[in-house]
Amino acid sequence: MSKKRLTGVLMSLALAGGVLAGCNSSASGGGGGDTIKIGANLELSGGVASYGQSASEGLQLAVDEINKKGIDGKKLKLIKVDNKSDAAEATNAAIKLVSQDKVAAIVGAATSTNTLAQVQVADDNKVVLVTPTGTNPTITNKDGKVNDYVFRTCFIDPFQGTVAANFASKELNVKSAAVLIDSSSDYAKGLAAAFKTSFKKNGGKIVSQEAYVQKDTDFHATLTRIKASNPEFIFLPGYYEEVGLIVKQAREIGLDVPIMGGDGWDSPKLVDIAGKEALKNTYITNHYSSGDKDKKVQEFVSAFKKKYGKSPDAFSALGYDSGYFIADAIKRAKSSDPEKIKDALAKTDGLSLVSGKLKLDKNHDPIKSAVILEYVNGEQTFKTKVNP
Fold it and tell me: Is the previous residue joined to 109 through a cis bond, with omega within 30 degrees of 0?
């Protein structure tokens, strides 16, 4: 994060602590009469807009379905704010949703960094925050302390990084790996740390470690250094814009080894950037597969295609699941009071969602399976499912 962006975040957090001190949305109950206000603080524009747009579409579909029946006579009102793929903007958006819109809960952000920028606002003002896809562990637990009002619908980085390492070691049988990360991303650093620990534990060797920052476009020099280390495998836990260019340029210089990343690859734009041919022999860990034959998954895929005319990715699925996660808690709490919603969310155990049955651990993190997908002719194909 640049000094300018960091200053913006700190100023926003100071505003949250000062202006909003004592402002608790519990008093408003997230709405009035027959309406419960839910905020969506997502990346609708900017560098990772594909993630936020997908999560927004899934969340909107869930709200539309929930409102057909209602929740004890009440309906959800979704208020969307664009954080522009920026941490300071995410903080400001959270402040707006809490202080002006007085929502009962916030869904977002799609990335870990933009979610972390909202945590203090949520906890200080006692408003529920549910990230559909923020996987950094510190979102829900910082230095051993659980953030009471913060939850997630996705698994966390250590699990995802470990799954990738085990797949590389035990399924692909590789003994050496290079790691290339976005050094400006909490997400990438978290996955890389877990991958390296598990890969070494499995007897593997990290032969090269390189880094880049968001918006870089020329990776040839970095990839040439990686190639010189002769890795059997490359772990690339980044976001689709840079990943697409990296994979394309890696193949251009003859780096044909398997390349694997996490759910940050999951965007239809990845194929446009990298090309189908370059994506041969690449894999990702993810939260669900649209090819899963499970009835609940296929009903969701059908409804999503009917509404939007395209197949849903994992961000869509987790946005959708987040809507039902909150709605289920409101129903069990029999209240739109954020504190009661928070208590109900923490007790979630076995809720059936598109991405699997949801049970939370003591840190408000789901205990759930991961899937491994392989790119074949530019399409994600189901490879295997890994249980926690």
Answer: yes
